[in-house]
TrEMBL record:
Record keywords: Cell membrane, Membrane, Transmembrane, Transmembrane helix, Transport
Location of region: Disordered: 1-41
Membrane spanning residue stretches: 52-72, 78-97, 109-129, 191-211, 239-257, 263-286, 293-323, 343-374
Annotated compartments: Cell membrane
InterPro entries: AI-2E-like
Pfam families: AI-2E_transport
UniProt membrane topology term: Multi-pass membrane protein
Keyword Hydrolase: no
Compositionally biased residues, Basic and acidic residues: 11-21
Protein name, UniProt field: AI-2E family transporter
Organism (species): Asanoa siamensis
Primary subcellular site in the record, as a coarse category: membrane
UniProt entry tagged with the keyword Nuclease: no
Length: 385
């Protein structure tokens, strides 16, 4: 035995035997406190990280990723509706909060906001449907006169004989042509009813999201570690406030576009000026491209009235769209969302290019959220290094 070895115990010096290792004692039994905190017992030791287990887990991860991709692709339309409804609920929540501050219960506040939304939607539909019905009825009534005038026209009769249009029309009047036309009619009806279903789905989901908005936020904050929960709550509330401010700003721009179009339609004498103003206002809710859609519709109606009014309408909307895109829109977004003019324009263009209408809707709030996170999270960390 070397000098560095520890001296044996007294009983070992007397017997001369080697020291016997002490047997391992069993872990203490779970106490009553452990039973309360761990009702299903203590977790066991983790498995060994063998290559087979790693490969199996990696393959399972690939399979799950592919299945998730298929699920998202198949449910993409429904996910888009859910996203739009959640976006609208976030934007309308400030109105609910203001009603609650004056003493209205949350259920009543949600009901008031939802009823206002339904009234606005119903007003827009009531402004658009009667002109369409009237125009279609006028066309059906005047159709026999149009056909009789065409039959008396010598040029039309010469073209009919030259190109044998009567025989071609008879050949087109076949069961196959009828079935294709019927399929087109059913396709149009399916599109109309599908659009109605989507609008109703978004409306119902928006109401549900507004009613359970506080519970959803609390559940989401519960997933954050307690040490960072307060800071995450403050940043998230600020981002949600910016989304609400963005929707308020977008509504203000749309109302301004509708009022301007109504005044122009009244000046030039267009039929149904209020309906055309509603079309422009609703279309203008889509950043960058919405104003163009509304302008094209109104310009087509103006050209149907007269060439002069059509040209005046085209010039008016070209000038107004440039003013809105590069002057009104950036300034309103800078005041409401605190986003610079250049950032608002670039974000809207990039959003439209990447994700279409959805990208245009979320571009400005996304830029505002990124700016807030960079200013409050990234920059302080860089300064602390």
């Amino acid at each position: 035995m070397s000098a560095d070895d520890p001296a044996p115990a007294a009983d070992q010096r007397e017997t001369g035997d080697e020291p016997v290792p002490k047997p391992r004692t069993a872990p203490p039994a779970d106490t009553a406190e452990d039973d309360d905190t761990l009702p299903y017992g203590r977790p066991g030791r983790p498995f060994r990280r063998s290559p087979f287990l790693l490969g199996f887990v990696g393959g399972l991860g690939l399979v799950l990723a592919y299945v998730s991709y298929l699920a998202v692709r198949n449910a993409f339309g429904i996910l888009v509706l859910i996203f739009i409804a959640l976006f609208l609920a976030i934007g309308l929540n400030p109105a609910v909060v203001r009603l609650r501050k004056i003493g209205v219960p949350r259920g009543g506040a949600v009901a008031i906001v939802a009823l206002s939304l339904v009234l606005v939607l119903g007003g827009a539909i009531s402004a658009l449907v009667p002109p369409l019905v009237t125009q279609v009825g006028d066309f059906i009534t005047a159709a026999p006169g149009y056909i009789e005038a065409l039959q008396r026209n010598d040029t039309i009769n010469d073209l009919v004989g030259q190109f044998d249009l009567v025989e071609r029309a008879k050949s087109l009047a076949s069961p196959e042509t009828f079935s294709r036309a019927l399929g087109g009619v059913f396709g149009g009806a399916r599109l109309i009813f599908g659009t109605i279903f989507q609008v109703l789905t978004v409306l119902v989901l928006t109401i549900y999201f507004m009613a359970s908005f506080d519970r959803m936020k609390s559940a989401a904050y519960g997933l954050v570690p307690a040490s960072r929960r307060d800071r995450v709550r403050l940043l998230t509330d600020e981002i949600l406030a910016k989304v609400g401010a963005y929707i308020v700003g977008a509504l203000a721009i749309a109302v301004l576009a509708g009022i301007t179009s109504f005044v122009f339609a009244m000046i030039v004498g267009l039929a149904y000026p209020f309906a055309l103003a509603v079309v422009v206002a609703v279309s203008d809710l889509i950043p960058q491209i919405g104003a163009t859609i509304g302008a094209v519709i109104v310009t087509i109606v103006a050209f149907a009235d007269s060439l002069t009014i059509g040209i005046a309408s085209a010039v008016f909307f070209i000038v107004y769209q440039q003013v809105e895109n590069y002057l009104i829109y950036p300034k309103v977004m800078r005041r409401s969302v605190k986003v610079s003019d250049v950032a608002a324009i670039v974000a809207a263009l990039v959003g439209v290019g990447l994700f279409g209408v959805l990208g245009a809707l979320v571009a400005i709030p996304a830029v505002a959220a990124i700016q807030l996170i960079v200013r409050e999270v990234v920059m302080p960390r860089q300064e602390a290094r």
